[in-house]
Amino acid sequence: MELQEIRDQILSVPVFKALPEAMHQRLLSGFLFIARTRPVTRGDFLFLQGERETDTGCLLLQGTAEVRKEGESPVFVQAPDILGEMRLFTPQGQRTATVEISVGGVVLEFHWREFGVESRKLFDKAELTLLKKAIVDCAWRRGPDLFAHEKSEPAS
C-alpha distances in angstroms, 124 versus 5, 22, 120, 142, 155? Predict the structure, then answer.
């Protein structure tokens, strides 16, 4: 993928598309600083349900991923979208689903801890609140049952 296409896809991710335009360039620079692109092929696993000790997040830039939770029907996520955000809201940072690539493409991988550090450098307090709300809204959309038991904030 060329740089401009990567930039366009990042800004098309629903969780970030909802942010004010004034935040876009800083968000782009932050991701381009902390993340790396990686090609993925059908059958590649991004996350395994129950996995711990990892704070990886992904922006699915091209392709499709299948999200499977034990006892639930699979959900297919098409690019562009964010994956791995639910890990921020689980008590021990445990993965809540297995994510497998079903149609190959490209992901932009990053670590949530680095994303938090970089975000605090790039955004003021009000903007950080908007960013956290966007991520919470995304997590809520994917797993409202997760918030039924706890009212938690993303790990920083």
Answer: 28, 12, 7, 27, 18
